Amino acid sequence: MQVELGRGRRSRYSYGFDDVALVPGALTVDPELVDLSADIGGLKLGLPLLASAMDAVVDPRSAALISDLGGLGVLNLQGIYCRYADPEPIFERVISAAPEEAVSVLQSVYQEPVKGELVLQRIAEMRALGAKVAVSPAPAVAQQMAELIGPGKVDCFVVAATVVTAKHVSNRWSPPDFRRLADTVQAPVLVGNCVAYEAAIDLMRAGADGVLVGVGPGAACTSRRVLGIGVPQITAAVDCAAARDDYARESGKRVPIILDGGMRVGGDIAKAFAAGADAVMIGSPLAAASEAPGRGYHWGMATPDPGLPRGTRVKVGVAGSLKEILLGPAHRDDGTMNLFGALRLSMASCGARTLREMQQTEIVIAPSLPTEGKAQQRAQGLGGTR
Question: Where in the sequence numbering do the catalytic residues fall?
């Protein structure tokens, strides 16, 4: 439904996680029968999870732990680990900075250049720890990084920035050739981020093996405020899922979409799949793990930008172990733990045995859902209503 913004200008509504609810139908299934596995460009995952390529979330050790639990941790190739041989003092400097100093400290520490030998060292460390190896460069250096790494060293190559399109106009650099990248590293290439049907289908036609969906919803990202851009995640997922389905009919190839950012609790993740996601990428919930390198803090990828920071450092605290956050058992009542146990139970309640079946779940517009009947919880600060 479109509404009039003013004379001669119309627009449509868009919806985020808190605006909608899922409708259980006439069928339920035993949660034990629910299959959470995913196929991302030929890479098989036990959980439909990618951990964000953010320094406070993924290091070689946490990537191995996430792999053991069935997901995929993505290492930021332009982060602290690939700039400093000994990252510990750098993390201490970032974490101990006063709130008003955090951005300038991050800008300072990220001025150190990325070192090719450290890129290769971190990949080798991830491999030695038994992790599935996923790495992420910015588009401008993607081909350079791919050639440095070479074939057979990574399981997934993620080209990501605030917004990535297949049609980029610049006098400084050309957009990467995604098929060439895949040939160079001999691994699937995921590309993002985008939020629109046209951008998603163009990336698929350009050779992306998966598309990241989401501009600015992350807890540590300020792009929406700084730049005024973005689309709420439910609408973004539905639009980009339509691009995936149309491209599959056009080409015979199904390119998965990975909803990236904005998911805080298990219900958000369930809604992401109902809206069409094939997998999710999350950051701040994992930054709150006891094994996370950020030690209870989290910061956006664009926070250190020297000219226009589009992120901040947030305190997320330590909620529990990675296993507890992903698979339980939960010892909180607010939905922030056992995220994929919650997804399993939500799917079972909606009669979905697979993620593809979950994508057929009915969604209703229900902005009252988080608050209906919850006055006592709100008054007492319970159940995540603080």
Answer: 221, 310
